[in-house]
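Journal club prep — side note

Before the paper discussion, L.F. wants everyone to see what a predicted structure for a comparable chain looks like in token form. Sequence:
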Amino acid sequence: MTASEVGKLTVNLKGTDSEPVIELIGQIIDADVKKFQKQLEQVYKNKCRRIYLDVSKATYIDSHGLGTIVYYHTLMQKDKNELIVINTNEDRSSYLSRMFDQTNLDKVLTIVSKV
């Protein structure tokens, strides 16, 4: 991995058309959030009942990334649908677990360890 690849965000679409899984790998930071937003917007427009957002391989999420997650969570709720965050790392001391806990988003978002 070169220095320019460190932290680069990869966005993969998995799952099915009716229950898509957007997998985020790397750092979700301002420079790459648009890539994530674009994929999430495309999936959202399909009016799925559930969208899964897998952050298990994400190493960092900044305020832009969190804002995007909260924004689409709110949109999905208004449509009586769900945005479900998957974090397979059950270590409560991991960065993502601490971040969701410290921001109280673990009480707002649906966060599961597996589907």
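L.F.'s comment for the group: The helical segments are 30-44, 63-78, 95-102, 105-108. Keep this in mind when we get to the figures.
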